[in-house]
Amino acid sequence: MICYLILLSCLGAIFGSPVRYEVHNERVIGGHEAQRNSWKWQVSLQIADAYYPDYYSHICGGTLVSPNWVMTAAHCILTTIGTNYQVALGEHNLFELDGTEYFVGVDKIFIHEDWNPYDIGNGNDIALLHLSSPAYGNGFVETGMLPAEGDILPNNSPCYITGWGVSSAGGSAPDKLQEAMLPVVDHAICSQPNWWGSNAKDTMVCAGGDGVKAGCSGDSGGPLNCYRNGYWQIHGIASFAIVPFCDTYQKPTVFTRVSAFIPWLYNTMKNNGGF
């Protein structure tokens, strides 16, 4: 049986900006600490403790896609009534207050209507979180840029996964944001029987699979960042891998392909309070 990567282990306007492309040092699993506040759209999705409601802990990653909205994976959302969430923006070290981060509550959650929590391999692992107050630019927070509808990345495109997921099989989660370069694996390859087979849908994007670098528990919901046409774009939402052996050879990390859900994203935002 395959175990999927499911985790239940000054004010100003915000704009996405072009970033000079740099090849990061390669060493998330198999990754290394990201440069502080270099991925300004990365958020930590956090859940309130049932017994200590003022205490929140990280459960998933996410992407700020507008001042009012965060995009994450549907499987990151618990169905427990009364569950409270917040997002940490401008975050780097989860266990220190660095002065760059701030916290905003979540007041509405929209999960894709075709998401099936009992069959993550069916796809549609995407959700939008409406923030209780708009995010603001403080020099450490920006919105992520979404790709064009239907955009497909070429095989071996160099993309970066970022997150606070475990950095080794069975290991503990890091306190500082990690990154790892994961080359895209074409759908025709990823859907072969000795790769992910029929579990890899065309609404997903695979990345990695070298047996060294991968996303894992805690990275769920976070972005796959790809440099495209002069900008960093968010092409994936971390969805599943083999747990705890997330770095299994020819079993790349699988992401929801954002470009397949552009109409859903924009319609959901437009019809529920606007961007």
Q: What report would you give on this structure?
A:
With 275 residues, the chain is mainly beta. It folds into 2 domains: 114 residues, Thrombin, subunit H (Beta Barrel), CATH 2.40.10.10; 102 residues, Trypsin-like serine proteases (Thrombin, subunit H), CATH 2.40.10. It has 2 helices and 13 strands; from the N terminus they run βββββββββαββββα. The strands form 2 sheets. The protein has a 6-stranded antiparallel barrel. Strands 2-3-4-7-6-5 form a 6-stranded antiparallel barrel. Strand 11 and strand 12 form a beta hairpin. The N terminus is likely disordered.
Write the layout of secondary structure elements.
Layout: E1 32-33, E2 42-48, E3 56-66, E4 69-72, E5 85-89, E6 102-111, E7 127-131, E8 158-163, E9 178-185, H1 187-190, E10 204-207, E11 223-228, E12 231-240, E13 253-257, H2 262-270
Antiparallel strand pairs: 1-9, 2-3, 2-5, 3-4, 4-7, 5-6, 6-7, 8-9, 8-11, 9-10, 10-13, 11-12, 12-13
Structural class: mainly beta
Strand order of the largest sheet: 8-9-10-13-12-11
Please state roughly what percent of the residues sit in beta strands, choosing from under 5%, 5-15%, 15-25%, 25-35%, 35-45% or over 45%: 25-35%
Largest sheet: 6 strands, antiparallel, barrel
Count of individual helical segments: 2
What is the helix fraction of residues, given as a range?
under 10%
Tally of discrete structural domains: 2
Q: Low-confidence spans: pLDDT under 50, at least 5 residues?
A: 1-27
- Give the tally of β-strands: 13
From the N-terminal CA to the C-terminal CA, the straight-line distance is: 41 Å
CATH domain class name of the largest domain = Mainly Beta
Label the overall shape: globular
